[in-house]
TrEMBL record:
Residues 130-185 form the Elongation factor P C-terminal domain. This is Elongation factor P. It is found in: Cytoplasm. It comes from the Bacteria. The gene is efp. Transmembrane segments: none annotated. The keyword Cytoplasm applies. InterPro entries: Elong-fact-P_C, NA-bd_OB-fold, Rib_uL2_dom2, Transl_elong_fac_P/YeiP, Transl_elong_KOW-like, Transl_elong_P/YeiP_cen, Transl_elong_P/YeiP_CS, Transl_elongation_fac_P. GO terms for cellular component: cytosol. Belongs to the elongation factor P family. It comes from Solirubrum puertoriconensis.
Length: 187
């Protein structure tokens, strides 16, 4: 059991019979009334994000999970195949358990969450930033930098993201995996 003071991003809760991971939380102390905690939680099985408010000090049931590094191997009809870096065992996860899979390339390091009691894989998490090569984008106009204008681009994994006008084809860029945003060019 934990209280709302123990909330942090990545904490896994047993909420309404399902496992949810906290993606965002904010402690609010209004001028009038008791304090409370606003959270955004993602259901691990369905991937659905819900907003919930907890009163401050409320006890919640946490789930014990373990994070293990894995390497993405390939995708087939059964799902995404990963290999444990230490034991070389392979794990196959269905597409619903791999969020942001279109930003993942072969050989990518990911973290897989396992339920500690049942040893069941729950979800795969990509690192916060990945480096990808732009395979297609329209050419930008020179000198059009007065505004922060974006244009669509396709990266090597097939994902579509928005990039600034000065990004050209075959350039390597860093992408935020949490919201598909361009971060910077990579040398």
């Amino acid at each position: 059991m934990a209280t709302t003071a123990d909330f942090r991003n990545g904490l896994v809760l047993n909420y309404n019979g399902d496992l949810h991971v906290i993606t965002e939380f904010q402690h609010v102390k209004p001028g009038k009334g008791p304090a409370f905690v606003r959270t955004k939680m993602r259901n691990i099985k369905t991937g659905k994000v819900i907003d919930n408010t907890f009163n401050a000090g409320v006890k919640v049931e946490t789930a014990r999970v373990e994070q293990r590094p894995h390497q993405f191997l390939y995708k087939d009809d059964y799902g995404y195949n990963f290999m444990d870096n230490s034991s070389f065992e392979q794990v196959t996860l269905p597409e619903a358990m791999v969020p942001f899979a279109d930003l993942m390339k072969e050989g990518q390091e990911v973290t897989i969450l396992f339920h500690a009691e049942t040893e069941q894989p729950l979800t795969a998490e990509l690192p916060a930033f990945v480096e990808l090569v732009v395979t297609y984008t329209e050419p930008g106009l020179r000198g059009d930098t007065a505004t922060n204008t974006l244009k669509p681009a396709i990266v090597e994994t097939g994902a579509r993201i928005q990039v600034p006008l000065f990004i050209d084809q075959d350039q390597k860029i860093r992408v935020d995996t949490r919201d598909y945003t361009y971060v910077e060019r990579v040398k």
